[in-house]
Design brief:
By secondary structure, the protein is an alpha+beta fold. It has an eight-stranded antiparallel sheet with strand order 1-2-3-6-5-4-7-8.
Length: 216
């Protein structure tokens, strides 16, 4: 005679709650436009600003939408000088030679995924720091949203002139990396225009600057 083993319903439900949400359970949205997660935020003692965005691979690389896997996005940080500070010359210029790291935390599961943002350049965006990630596979689907953590510090091998040595506290060259945090949900990715509609005033379109980049 075969013996049947019954698992109590409560134990079964508890086990299910501990399991991560499968990617297929929630459809990851396709981006129609860039989503601004962290708007231009002063960093490095006001010497620069950081703006963090999520874009489609179609916008970033020109890949046809039909060839882009659902949930694969271009994560980018625009780090620009605010003026002639810390070696910068003009407001809006790209800040080079930085180590920029991204941490995405799945709020549902608590799992975190870390990735470096590498220097990337294009005509539309100019220089920025970026990487491509599969949100569903790398971080997991989260109905509660995602916490964003960015750390910024000098790249290995950067040498400071003597005139900067007394001005490094709280900047890119300080003892601790700069940390910036943000948050987004799948709804934000699906309907970025909703957040823009709630804004008090529309932002002017960036003006093209010499060299094929854009001012920010």
């Amino acid at each position: 005679m075969k013996r049947l083993t019954l698992i109590p319903t409560l134990l079964l439900l508890a086990a299910c709650e501990d399991q991560p949400i499968p990617t297929e359970a929630t459809e990851l949205p396709s981006l129609e436009e860039e989503v601004v997660v962290i708007d231009a935020t002063p960093i490095a003692g006001g010497a620069a600003t950081l703006k963090f965005e999520i874009a489609s691979l179609t916008e970033a690389w020109g890949i046809p939408p039909a060839d882009v896997a659902a949930g694969t996005y271009h994560f980018e940080a625009q780090i620009r000088y605010a003026g002639p500070l810390l070696g910068g010359r003009n407001a809006g210029d790209f800040v080079p030679y930085l180590d920029v790291a991204l941490t995405l935390t799945n709020v549902d599961t608590g799992d975190a995924f870390e990735a470096p943002l590498l220097p990337v350049v294009g005509i539309a965006e100019g220089w920025h720091y970026a990487t491509d990630l599969d949100l569903g596979s790398d971080v997991g689907v989260s109905r509660a949203g995602y916490e964003v953590g960015l750390t910024v510090g000098p790249a290995q091998g950067v040498v400071l002139h003597e005139d900067l040595l007394d001005s490094t506290a709280g900047t890119f060259f300080g003892a601790a990396p700069i940390a910036v945090r943000g948050f987004f949900t799948l709804d934000d990715l699906a309907a970025p225009e909703a957040a823009e509609d709630e804004a008090p005033a529309a932002k002017p379109k960036p003006k093209k600057t010499p060299g094929g980049g854009y001012g920010y």
